[in-house]
């Protein structure tokens, strides 16, 4: 395959992983456990988009807003009715981890019962997606508009919110030390609810893009959690930009594996990198 | 009648797997998601040795636990420095790597097609090709595993493991080499899981990579937690419930795939609800 094409694929994969890692990082830093149910929000986004956009024939933008809201609500409710209660009981991280695995498992089973386990394509007609030629290499419009254009905008606006607004300051204070943040009068609970909502929306956006591009399956909620977690861990989970760095390292490593060994070995790559990273630098590449 | 023996065989196999999971996760508090990997290693060792090298299943029942134990020893030793969440992530990595190898090392594993035609056990001139006869072997192996599990939990070794679960740091101060204990139980658990895998492969006569996924490991978590963490009898009760449920669903008239998804949904939700409302499970004395 041509070199330029490979670079384009790597960038578009890296963008998707960056989006997912950024959303995942938000909750990871504030509640300090690996919230696997993030993959559930990914699924909710994709399938709700399918429901409104393709089945109900609602216009694109309203469908998009509805699905993002649904995936945000999914994580918000998961926090409000499950995680918050456990955290207040001072449950160990292992408990939260088990619960979030359970939630993702149940969510993907329920969606499987409703939509079947074969790929659900969110796009209405295949002809809706144009293939665009860029200097001899090709990408489709979903990859370009969704991946290359909207994801950087989303990430930059999140960085703005995080570093320039009151809400962002409160989020960072809770990440530093949630008890102190509460003592100085930051409405911790409200901020955490918003953080989970935001995080769910980002996961949902990932699911929507996946559904539009190649179709979504119930197992993809878990399958996309893997690169997400690995990107955050290798990049440095304490840093906003770490997840994005990790995402691109992972995308490059996967693309190289495809070129050298073939596509089927690609699933093992994140974990080989993860285990090596846990050995040599468990805190990740970037510190805060 | 045939059907009852079929259920008894499944119960024995999952009983073995749940006991193994309980020794590691319940008795020692090491959250591992690699249960399905060692189960799969047992099954694949049986499939490969029996179909490609003509070994008898009885010989494999002796050798497979040793192979799985050796792998677990190496993996466990290299994961020794990871704690809690990170140990779980590393075992998740191992499971994904196992899955990728099973899918791609086609000379031995036949890739995604799996290996068919695994023979039934043959002892003393009898071939155990009926559920009625196979069940004898399955229950025999289960009894061995039950006995060893009880011996372990009543020994000083078992008490040290429980102490690691309660407070590893304190135990280290008293001079215990906790990492050795953890490595030992991880190895024993893997060897037991491999026994379950050999029985499964020989009973179903077929293996493929999709039988040994994360969902299978989460099912084992649910069995242990439902029955009661750290109780051998609890693991058996958990296995009983979660093996019977899909059979009941199928009996009511749900198609097999749908019954499978409903079970997945049930054990996913069980994990969430148990952790929220009954973290000790049915019998348990201990909660995570």
From TrEMBL, chain A:
Origin: domain of life: Bacteria
Keyword Cell membrane on entry: yes
InterPro entries, sorted: ABC_transp_permease, BCAA_transport_permease
GO biological process, one term: amino acid transport
Bilayer topology term: Multi-pass membrane protein
Cellular component aspect of the GO annotation: plasma membrane
Localization, UniProt: Cell membrane
Protein keywords: Amino-acid transport, Cell membrane, Membrane, Transmembrane, Transmembrane helix, Transport
UniProt entry tagged with the keyword Magnesium: no
GO MF, one example: transmembrane transporter activity
Bilayer-crossing regions: 6-26, 33-53, 59-82, 94-115, 135-161, 191-209, 229-251, 258-280
Family per similarity comment: Belongs to the binding-protein-dependent transport system permease family. LivHM subfamily.
Protein name: Branched-chain amino acid ABC transporter permease
Organismal lineage: Bacteria, Candidatus Nomuraibacteriota
TrEMBL record, chain B:
Listed CDD domains: TM_PBP1_LivM_like (cd06581)
Lineage of the organism: Bacteria, Candidatus Nomuraibacteriota
Protein name: Inner-membrane translocator
Pfam families, A to Z: BPD_transp_2 (PF02653)
Transmembrane segments: 6-24, 31-51, 57-79, 122-152, 183-206, 212-229, 236-252, 258-277
Membrane topology, record value: Multi-pass membrane protein
Record GO cellular component, one term: plasma membrane
InterPro entries found in the cross-reference section: ABC_transp_permease (IPR001851), LivM-like (IPR043428)
């Amino acid at each position: 395959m041509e070199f330029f094409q490979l670079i384009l694929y790597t960038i578009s994969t890296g963008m998707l992983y960056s989006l997912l890692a950024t959303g995942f990082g938000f909750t990871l830093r504030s509640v300090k456990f690996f919230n696997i149910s993030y993959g559930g929000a990914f699924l909710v986004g994709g399938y709700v988009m399918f429901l409104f956009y393709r089945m109900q024939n609602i216009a694109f933008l309203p469908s998009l807003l509805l699905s993002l809201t649904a995936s945000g609500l999914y994580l918000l409710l998961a926090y409000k009715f499950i995680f918050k209660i456990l955290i207040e009981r001072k449950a160990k991280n292992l408990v939260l981890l088990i619960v979030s695995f359970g939630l993702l498992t149940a969510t993907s089973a329920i969606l499987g019962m409703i939509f079947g386990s074969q790929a659900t394509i969110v796009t209405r007609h295949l002809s809706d997606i144009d293939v665009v030629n860029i200097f001899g290499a090709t990408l489709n419009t979903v990859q370009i508009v969704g991946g290359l254009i909207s994801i950087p905008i989303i990430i930059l606006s999140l960085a703005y919110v995080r570093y320039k607004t009151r809400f962002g300051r409160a989020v960072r204070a809770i990440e530093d030390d949630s008890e102190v943040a509460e003592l100085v009068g930051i409405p911790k609970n409200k901020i955490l609810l918003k953080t989970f909502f935001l995080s769910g929306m980002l996961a949902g956006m990932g699911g929507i893009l996946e559904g539009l591009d190649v179709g979504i399956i119930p197992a993809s909620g878990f399958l996309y959690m893997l690169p997400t977690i690995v990107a955050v861990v290798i990049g440095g989970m304490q840093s906003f930009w770490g997840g994005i760095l990790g995402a691109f390292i992972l995308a490059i490593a996967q693309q190289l594996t495809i070129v050298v060994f073939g596509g089927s070995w690609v699933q093992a790559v994140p974990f080989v990198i993860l285990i090596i990273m846990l050995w040599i630098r468990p805190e990740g590449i970037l510190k805060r | 009648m045939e059907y009852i023996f079929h259920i008894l065989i499944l119960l024995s196999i999952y009983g073995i797997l749940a006991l193994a999971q309980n020794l590691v996760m319940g008795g020692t508090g090491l959250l591992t998601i690699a249960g399905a990997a060692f189960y799969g290693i047992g099954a694949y060792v049986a499939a490969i040795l029996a179909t490609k090298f003509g070994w008898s299943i009885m010989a494999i029942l002796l050798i497979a636990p040793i192979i799985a134990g050796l792998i677990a020893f190496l993996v466990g030793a290299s994961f020794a420095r990871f704690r809690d969440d990170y140990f779980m992530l590393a075992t998740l990595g191992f499971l994904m790597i196992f899955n990728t190898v099973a899918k791609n090392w086609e000379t031995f594993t036949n890739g995604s097609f799996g290996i068919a035609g695994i023979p039934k056990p043959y002892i003393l001139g009898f071939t155990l090709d009926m559920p009625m006869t196979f069940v004898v072997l399955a229950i025999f192996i289960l009894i061995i595993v039950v006995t060893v599990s009880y011996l372990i939990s009543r020994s000083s070794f078992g008490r040290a493991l429980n102490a690691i679960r309660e407070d590893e740091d304190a135990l280290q101060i008293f001079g215990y080499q906790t990492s050795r204990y953890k490595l030992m139980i991880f190895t024993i658990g893997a060897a037991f899981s491999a026994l379950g895998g050999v029985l499964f492969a020989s009973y179903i006569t077929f293996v493929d990579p999709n039988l040994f996924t994360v969902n299978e490991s989460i099912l084992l978590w649910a069995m242990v937690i439902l029955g009661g963490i750290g109780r051998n009898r609890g693991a058996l009760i958990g296995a009983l419930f979660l093996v019977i449920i899909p059979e009941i669903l199928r009996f009511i008239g749900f198609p097999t795939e749908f019954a499978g998804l409903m079970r997945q949904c049930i054990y996913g939700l069980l994990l969430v609800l148990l952790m929220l409302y009954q973290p000790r499970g049915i019998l348990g004395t201990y909660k995570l």
